[in-house]
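dumping this here before i forget
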Amino acid sequence: MSGDPARRYADADIGEVNKNYLMTLLLAVLLLYFNDGLLDCAHPSASTSSHHSGVRAIIDSIGGIDAVLETSHESLHMLLSDFISMDLTSVMLRGGKPSFPPEIWETIDKKSVWWSKDILGRLSLATVLQQTSRLAWYRNSIDTGKEQLSMEITRDFETALSPMYARIADTCLENVSTATDSEVNQTFNLIRAFQHSTLIYMYRAICGLPVSHSLVQQHVLPCLECVLDIKQPSRVLNCTIFPLLVAGGHVLSPRHQKAVSGLVCRIRNEVRFASFYSVGEILSAIWRGNEDDVSWFDMFLQLGPDALVL
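structure:
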């Protein structure tokens, strides 16, 4: 009988076993996803999109992303923050809509994540990525005819994504060591790099502005400066590939292109991801083409379908 306590406990045990199995399976498929998307993306056997679908199916079977984040091990949280971030950047470069709602970033920010958090608690990269997700959803709504381009909404995104800089009060804090101060600066550089690159995305992919437009160009060099200001060697530098691709693709000066190329080579020697080799090749192709009116999505067409960028 369904009301039998023994039966209920047995069902609960079976449910727990199934959930543990699905969590283990989720970990395995996530690792396959990262392997194919970062290491083997140029190999004919790469199947990043299939693994992406598999991860989403498993998450749905467990009860959704919130349920997974609330009940999974801490080690899985960081991998999921990677997965959801790469899902977002892939949509930004290729089109479509994110697999997860913008609100999920509030939950992610409370868990273990791939980025370094601001120890002074002023701003989190999750807040920037949440706005970026909203922007990607908005672009998809325009593309599908559900919404029209609104200057009021665009201005709201401009304000929400306005690059944040340190204040004089931040330099007067007591008991902040030199090492801590350096960590704070690098965290801020990473956050600003994503703010600048997302605004470039907005002006290009949503507003349809050309490469040389002043609204686009005002964020290109500042974004690159954020990346260049991160001291090497640094784990943070390995997390700037997406901003580097976006800003680097919009650099107009040969001198600045050379600086970007040098930075790409240095990071490539450290990371050695096949996907990062693709980034270097794409930037070279963009610079050779030198097309001011190239659309945002055409600019990144040469990014392999299995390559992941973060």
